[in-house]
Structures are given as C-alpha cells and as structure tokens.
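Q: I'm writing up a methods section and want to include an example of the input and output format. Could you take the sequence below and give the corresponding predicted structure tokens, formatted cleanly so I can copy it straight into the document?
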Amino acid sequence: MTILDRSHEEHPAPSPRTAQPGSGAPKLPASNIALDRFFQVTRRGSTLAREFRGGLVTFFTMAYIVILNPLILGGFSAENAPADVAGGWLSAAQIGAVTGLTAGIMTILFGLVANLPFGLAAGLGINSFLAVSVVHEVTWPEAMGLVVINGLLIVLFGVTGARTAIFRAVPKELKAAITVGIGLFIAFIGFVDSGFIRPTAGGPPVQLGNDGSITSIPTLVFVVGLLAMGILVARKVQGGLLIGIVATTVLAAVVEAALKLGTASATNPGGWHLNTPVLSGQLVSAPDLGLVGHFDMFGAFGRIGGLAATMLVFTLVFTNFFDAMGTMTGLAKSAGLAHKDGTFPRLKSAFIVEGFGAVAGGATSGSSNTVYIDSAAGIGEGARTGLASVVTGVLFLGSMFLTPLTSVVPLEVAAAALVVVGAMMMAQIREIKFSKFSVALPAFLTIVTMPLSYSIANGIGVGFVSWAIIGAASGKAKKIHPLMWVVSAGFLVYFARGPINVLLGG
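A: Here is the clean output for your methods example:
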C-alpha cells in the first residue's frame, strides 16, 4: 500500500439530512460538494459545519502547546532556559514560531492524507524528556538529531507494515482499555491543569484544591465551565463544547479585568495557570523561524558513544510509537470510525504521516510532533474527517502571527473541555469483559497506570506485559499473538532503561 492507502475506509449510509438528487432541496455550491467528496464528510455521517466547528474546538484545546512548548524547551535568556551540555539554549520566541509552523503543516498533511480528525503538535512527554534528561548529555542540535532518527525509524515501521501488524496483534479488550485509560488520563490532566486536583505537602499524593477546598478563582471558573459544557453536551446542543469554551473564556476575561489575578506563581498561587485571559501588546508579529534545520543528526553518537545514544533513541521510539498508537486507537473509537478489530480508515497512512511528524519536529527543533489526545474535543463536537484537521492546521499556522489571540483562552477553560471529553471516552469500558479476570486485571492496570504515571506509553506497556504473562499462566498461551510477546519484551527493556543506562555508563 502507498501513503495514500484507503483500505478499511468506512462507507456509512448517506446522512438523512443530505439532499438527494431530484429531491428538490437547494443545491450545494460546487466547492462544498468537492470538499464533501474529497473528505467523505457525508459518507461518515457528518456535515461541513460540524467539521469546521470540530476543527475550531480541537485548535482551542490544543493551542496551549504554542505557549507551553517554549516554556519547556526554551527561555528568554540563558538564565531561565534549559541549557544543554555545552551551555547552549533555545529562544522561547523561536520555539513558539516553529511549534505553530510544524503543528500546522503536519496537521494539515494528516488531514489530507489520512482523512482523520486528529491534530498533531509537539508531544509533551518527549519535549519534557529532552529538556530534563537528554540535553544534560548532548547539545540541543544533537538532541533534535536523535528525534529525527526516531521519526525515520517510526516511518520505516509504518512503511513496512510492522506498526500496523503490531496494532492488529493487540486484543480488542486491550484496545478498549487503552481508550478508557486515555479518557481517564485526559480528564486527570484537566483536573490538574485547572488546580482542581493538587499535590499535597505530605500524606496522599493528590488532594482536592488546597487542603480539600477550592480557594482559587481560576479553578472556580474551571468548575463553572465544566458544568456549562456538561449541560450543553447533555442537552445535545450543536456546538456545545465550542459555545462552552467561548462563553467561559469571556467569563474568565471579565473576571481578570475586574480582579487582576495575573499569572500563577510561587508568590501568586491564586493566578491563572500558564496564561491570563487578556489581550495585550502587539496582536500581529512576524515569526522567527531561525531554528528550522538547526539539528545535528549523528553528533550525539560521537559525543556520548553509540550504545548510550542508541538507548536514548530506543526510549524516544517506544514513547513516540506507543503513545501515538494508543491515542489514535482511542480517538478512532471515540469518533465511531473504528472497526470491530480496532482498526480504522487509512490506518497505514496515519501511522506513516505521524512518523513524519517526529521527523519534522526534530528538523525544526520544536520536538517530535505526534497525535494529540486533545483532538477528542473536536470529535466530541462532531468532527469525523480530515477536514477538521485542515481547519485546525490552518489555525496553527495563523498562531505563529497571532500568539496574543491564542493565549486568550486560559488553561482552566481548555481543562474543562478535556474533562468533558474524558467522560465521553469512558463509554468504551462496556467492551471489556470484567467477568474474566485474565482480561479484567490487564485492562484495569492499563486504565489506571496512564493517569497515575502520567504516561500513555506506560499504561500500554503494563497492559501488554500483564496480558501476556497472565494469559500464558492461565493456560491461554496459544491465543496470545507472537508479536505481543515481542513487544512485551521490548517494554521490559523500556521499563528497565534507567538501570541499563547506569550499566552502560559504568
């Protein structure tokens, strides 16, 4: 199959609201008909309005990455930026520009080729790993070179069909558990980002607000937004999530104008997380794309040695590979596009394009780009095709010039949308046969490990390993696909990578 693979494409019946030839209904403009046919909007039971609305919602729930990625990878001076082994650092302004550029291009490409309503942007797990661990051993250009190698390997796995084969080897109950786990994970992210759930100084690892109370105005805005979006979705109001996001953002802006809460910090714990809902400064500015092409593909191997560099690539590949696989599984099920075996339209094409997202992210120094679980918000709004992704991608490209507008939506508002979508994704739990404990325990471990370890890949790994071991010990070894054993062995190495790195370093 080629990258334009259309296998497993769904062919649902035309929407009853779609005008049929000779029905006397008003004719659609030719441009609308062309869009409908190319993206198969009607065949998937959607409408152009839903796709555009879904694309908007996905962008608003993902837009925080344009602000957050520069905070993780870059800084405004050498003093406040993660420095690499040679003392080098990345400019926050440049990181913001390439974050919007890469997310825009890759999301549009994904929509056009894979025709799925998934948005792509810099993966939070990998960018944190680069900033916290990798650049202590190599320079930033060398670290991004490793990201490019990681992406090329993932593309190779996609082109050869290895990634698709692994995907098909996963039992449907485990795929359902991955979807549920992701739903719980994104809801947990929403609770944490809003301040509704916080760590404790001692005792339990998490608590409600501050000492069991909601003491922050922004967190209260989150609660209001959560209830408003929940009511709109429950009443099946078209555009409920988008209406909720816009209305709660307006409320947040009014609150900020009246109370001047500012951004949260150690001295201002009651402020907004990440960004304040205000328009300030210059609305339009030209992006600085100086980081494009600023990578050294093989420099890390010369600096730290082949084995150590290979272990870093191994960690990147496993995180990238299985985070994306789990996320796409959950999103496809949430969109109603998944078949009974868990596959979805243009599966191979989706895997290949997602791999190129990692290559592009490394090549622009914005970190590996991957499919975002936040896309579930647009799916919850009704998006079912790649047209929604094109809309999201165009908005990301615009965000390079309109960063102040992007930052108007506070993280607390996006967090409310994530919790609502997480609740929607939990519905897949009905596909898991909890009456069979050999199924129940691996599924349970998959579900709870994702939010508790803050990693989709960890949840998938625990699920794979426990499924294989428990299944074999229960006398069902013949029913376990050989690839499950291969991947489980790989995950065991992944989970032991810390001690392995120590041994290699010794």
